[in-house]
Each structure stands twice: as C-alpha cells, then as structure tokens.
Model the fold of this input.
Amino acid sequence: MSPASAADGLLDGSRDGLLQGKVVLVNGGSQGVGAAVARAAVREGAEVAVTGRRAEPGEALVAELTAAGGKALFVRADLADAEQAKTSVAEVVHAYGRIDCLVNSAGLTSRGTLLDTTPELFDAHIAINLRAPFFAMQAAVADMVARKAPGTIVNIITSSAHGGQPFLAPYVAAKAGLMGLTRNAAHAHRWDRIRINGLNIGWTATEGEDATQRAFHGAGDNWQDQAAARLPMRRLGRPDEIADFVVLLLSDRSGVVTGSVIDWDQNVLGGLD
Done:
C-alpha cells in the first residue's frame, strides 16, 4: 500500500479517542509493528513521534500520518547507542512538552546459536533488544516522575522469550531480559502511577520478518503461505492487530493493569499434543 492510499484510509475507521491528547513515542516505529502502532495511535487521537535509523521510511510514515490529519514527528536515532535512545525521548519532550506513552518496538532478529554466536552478535542483540528499551524507559519515566504525571509503557517482546528455537540464542537472551525488566520497572514505578506492560508476540507478517526469512532461511515468495499452513489459525499475526492491542494497553481503558507480559500468540505455552 502506498503512503497516499494508506493515509486515505487511516482515519476512516471507528475511533474511540482512546489516546486523545496523549503524546506517544514509538521507538523502532518506521516500519512493521511500530509503524502500525503509530497509525493506530494517531487514529485514536494521539500526537506521535517515531524513531528509526533510516530517514526515508521514517519521514514517509510521518508524511502519511500528517496527510491523514494527525500530528507526527520523526526522530532519527540509532537505538543501539544508549545515548541516542535517551536523546530520542528528550527530543520528543522538547517538541511536545512531555511524553505520556512509550512503545519499545525496535528489534534485532539476526540468527545465532549457543555454539556459533560471536561476542559481537551477542552485544548487538543486547544493545537493541534490551539496553535501548532500558534507557528509553529511564528517560521517559524520569519525565513522568518529574511532572508527577501518570504514564504508560508497552514493550514489544516475543513468545520466544520463553525459550525459542536454537538459532535464536542471543535474541532469546536479550528478550528474556526485557521480559524481566518490564516486570521490575512496573513494580518499581507503580506508586508513580506509571503502568508498564509487555507483549510476547508470535510469528508476525512484517517487512523485517520477510527480510529475515529470505536472508537466513532461503525463503521464497510463498514463504508466508507455507508458514501459515503449519499454524493453528492458518495465518501469521498482523501488525495492525498487535497495534490495536498496544493502544488498549497504553490507554486508560486497560485500567490498573501493570507488570503484565501477555502472550499474544496462537500457540499455547505449556500445551502438549
């Protein structure tokens, strides 16, 4: 879908104003799940900022959101650098005056097993999948606490954080850390009225997943059809579905829920055939 056609339909759906007047930062928001969250947040009344390493997709998304009548900002940042992760929050606070909601959706999924993962690959996973969310949360929570204002954070994790495949060793290590961090931070800041939750998403049809399947698994053009045939619901998850769930968790509609890491998947943890 082109930016123009996406923009045409962006605000056409039913809206409840779940994030009306909120300032939302989506880290890793220029494509995939992050971009879907940005679209859903604008649809629900939020002012949105998205980060990404590459300017072209980030600026294209902002243009799409703006054309649809939303207010959006692109912040170019390499989240592997902890300082840039913190600065991304500072730029949003400077532009909008505050930050109400943070979504950490950036992720690195390059493959490695216990036996072939190099220290460099391991460090890369820790940098994107764990350290970046840590320091983005640090900066966002600091702004919320300084203003004595409530806020919400959602971390996009993975169902593989429970164990995962052998070829995901460094990814699992980092994302399992993020799962623990989500609960720790939620506990630490519950009295500040800052709610922090996570989603362990399953196999999802994104641009990044397509690139990963082709680069590491030799997948062809029909890989999604082949994958779907092996799944209970006969399809992969969709970013827009995840985005709707994220918006719910960011909004007051999710009540007092905090410290929850929800398995958003079609396979049931612990279930055996």
User: Anything to note?
Assistant: The mean pLDDT is 91. The first helix runs from residue 3 to 10. The beta strands are 23-27, 47-52, 71-76, 101-104, 151-156, 194-201, 261-264.
